[in-house]
Amino acid sequence: MNAHFRSIILQHTGATSLVEKEPIQDLWSGYGKILRVGLENAAVESVVIKHVQLSTSKHHPRGWDTDLGHQRKVKSYQVETIWYDTYSKNSAARLPQCLAVEKQNGEVLMVLEDLDKAGYPLRKRAVAWEEIASCLKWLAQFHASYLGQAPDGLWEVGTYWHLGTRPQELAKLDDEKLREAAPFIDEKLNACEHKTFVHGDAKLANFCFSRDGQVAGVDFQYVGGGCGVKDVAYFIGSCLDERACERLEAQILDTYFQCLHSELGEKNEALEREWRSLYRVAWADFHRFLKGWSPGHWKINSYSERVTAEVIDNL
Fold first, then answer.
1. Looking at the domain covering 129-314, what would its CATH class be?
2. C-alpha separations of 267 from 93, 196, 227, 231, 263 in Å
3. Which of 21, 26, 252, 265 is deepest in the core (most CB within 10 A)?
């Protein structure tokens, strides 16, 4: 980390010195890293640093090393800085406080609250229903916070798999019926009347858990406009197998909408009717991306195939 970025961290935390304690993870495709930084004589013991290096070198783990992919990734970090600067403070859903954002010479620094020290130290690869319900509540809080707002400076259409940003994956899709239906699925989602901000990458790995089951969300590169059930479908696909996805579908939606109405302070029946009808459409939309991007992916299963076939038949 260069001296300027180190000085920004010291300035915004009030620390007298800092030390890079541990790497948390590398950013996708080699665009930088997330690390924990220890602080001396500051109000907090540590912060988490997201250090983005927007070089033109591309090392995509699945071979999608293209300029289009690079530009999409560059925009995603621009969106994330705007998100933290402009919108994050209005979220009722728990997320890290942003202490500073700095840009210099093609690099971006985000200084974020350390959620481990704030009481959310657990990361989970498998979850029970109670933890799923907590994540659904988080999504409901997030969506309620931005219902009806315009995503100025963010993605016009949120989610990293949005069709308009994924023409190469669509071209690789060998399911002809799904490829032909893709624009109509996309149009149906984008035409929804009730829009909010979607997280855009609400997988299980992007939730941090407290010891008493509360959750906080991270990673806001793909925040943008859309219907909230896009996040719900994607989240459920990240943590349940195909049998559980089908068996719990009604319970998942009932829980999410109960939480959403509670956050809104009233029951919005028109919104629930519309978003319930789009849940499987959202599922088919992600399935379209996945089959073009990684045809052998574990998330491609009989439930997804059946849901997608039903959606196509009903278009």
1. alpha beta
2. 19, 16, 17, 20, 10
3. 252
- Sign of the C-alpha dihedral, residues 63, 67, 71, 72? negative
pTM of the predicted protein model? 0.94
Structural domain boundaries in the chain: 3-113, 129-314
pLDDT of 188 higher than 80 = yes
3-state helix, strand, coil in the chain (%, to 5): 50, 15, 35
- Do 112 and 96 contact (CB within 8 A), yes or no? yes
Q: Is the pLDDT of residue 118 over 50?
A: yes
Contact (CB, 8 A) for 39 and 18: yes
CA angle 151, 155, 161 (to 5 degrees): 135
Other beta carbons within 10 angstroms of residue 270's beta carbon come to: 10
Q: What is the model's pLDDT at position 266?
A: 96
Residue pointed to by tokens 């893709």: 182
| Residue located via tokens 């998330």 | 299
180: which 2 tokens?
């032909």
Local confidence band at 29 (pLDDT 50, 70, 90 cut-offs):
confident
What average pLDDT does range 56-78 have in this prediction?
71
pLDDT: which is higher, 66 or 92: 92
Q: Whose structure tokens read 């995503």?
A: 151
Pick from 136, 96, 118, 116: which is nearest to 217 by CA?
A: 96
CB atoms within 10 A of CB 10: 16
Contact 201, 161 (CB under 8 A): no
DSSP E strand boundaries for 16-106: 17-26, 32-40, 46-53, 98-104
